[in-house]
Structures are given as structure tokens and as C-alpha cells.
């Protein structure tokens, strides 16, 4: 039961981030925006392909992703979802590093 509450909290937080990003994009004059929160119990490669497929099927012109900005050993151990998407997609990709990792 605890897993479901963590997942619900993560989805709620993800939607808050997407809502804020959409507001910012509109304030900056970006035209059409589509939010898509990908929730899956898959590996990064499969999730990346799901996102790329969704973007292709819906005529996306740009993918915007957040990243933790891991480097070194953590990058080797954890991998990079954004990097995986970049390798699988032909679309331009805007990657935004999390504030927690900037300091």
C-alpha cells in the first residue's frame, strides 16, 4: 500500500512541475504545448522509446526533459534517461537541470 502512496505523491509532484513549466512557456510566448507525464514500471530504454513514440504520434516539435545532472560514477551506475531519449529521437531536445543539482 505504501508503494501506491509514493507513486501518487510522485505523480502529483510531476504534474505540479509540468503545470509550472506550461505556465512559463505560455508567458514566454510559446504556442501550443502538450504535457505528458510518463509513469511506467519499465527500464529507461523502454520508457524513452515510449516517450519518443508518443511525441512522434502527436506531432511534437520539441521534447523538454528534466535531469539530475549526474556525472562520473553515478552517471555510469544510474545512466541517463535524457541521454537515452536523445539517442532514440530525431526531435530537438531541451534538457533542464534540476535546481537541487546546480549548487
TrEMBL record:
Family note: Belongs to the universal stress protein A family.
Domain of life: Bacteria
Pfam families per UniProt: Usp (PF00582)
Species: Neisseria gonorrhoeae
Domain UspA positions: 20-97
Protein's name according to its UniProt entry: Putative universal stress protein
SUPFAM superfamilies assigned to the protein according to its UniProt record, in alphabetical order: Adenine nucleotide alpha hydrolases-like
Alphabetized InterPro entries for the sequence: Rossmann-like_a/b/a_fold, Universal_stress_UspA, UspA
PANTHER family: STRESS RESPONSE PROTEIN NHAX, UNIVERSAL STRESS PROTEIN HP_0031
